[in-house]
Amino acid sequence: MTAEIIPIPRAALHEQVAHRLRQMLVENRIAPGAKLNERELSEVLNVSRTPLREAIKMLAAEGLVELLPNRGAIAVELTEDDVRNTFEVMAGLEAQSGELAAERITDAELNEIKAMHFEMLAAYTRRDLPAYYRLNAAIHRAVNAAAKNPVLLATYNQVNARLQALRFRSNQDEDKWRDAVGEHEQMVAALTARDPLAMRAIMLAHLAHKRDTVLQQLRNSGAAGRTSTLA
User: What are the chain's domains?
Assistant: First the structure.
């Protein structure tokens, strides 16, 4: 008997490609402002250009990629004003979802978040930033889902897509990374206590610290770029 060959549906293929590209953008394997070279990406991802182009369109809709006439696609590079404005909205969304989650979370949802939190701590101990960030992002999504507001969830996903790469890089500062872990400990404690006001305050502070770290990193990279240009 020969094994049955089950083709991957076209939709599933381009979604898988989008997932892999999203990771490359978030983890800075494709730098902000860099052009997405279709030939190279097709070889790296081992796919044809058709699903690759469909995946790029998906990421453009999420705000991770910008499509330019006659120039193709480039990885989005946010300005300081973009960062401030987006984090301002994101802080409100995270605070609202955290507050509602503390009121509505089930025991099963809380246990799942605690399990992911322990895995995240293990990744932090290993200094495995990609694994840490994936678990970190999953925890934030789980808190948002526990709020049980589909409009809030859809808005959160749309806005958060623009910030994923910056949130990932904010943990490359050892002190800021340690502080972020401590804030996650506070989140779990507030959810366990079913304390909506504490959860709201923690999320607002967490996002403010992320914003400040990201802005400082942007300024530092800008200053480094100006120095290298003058050298």
Answer: 10-75 (1.10.10.10), 80-217 (1.20.120.530)
Q: Looking at residue 185, what is its pLDDT?
A: 97
More confident residue, 139 or 220: 139
DSSP letters for the chain: -PPPP-PPPHHHHHHHHHHHHHHHHHTTSS-TT-B--HHHHHHHHT--HHHHHHHHHHHHHHTSEEEETTTEEEE----HHHHHHHHHHHHHHHHHHHHHHHHH--HHHHHHHHHHHHHHHHHHHHT-HHHHHHHHHHHHHHHHHHT--HHHHHHHHHHHHTTHHHHHHHTTSHHHHHHHHHHHHHHHHHHHTT-HHHHHHHHHHHHHHHHHHHHHHHHHHHHHHHHHHH-
**Given this model, what pLDDT does residue 99 score?**
98
Mean pLDDT of the chain: 87
Whole-prediction pTM: 0.76
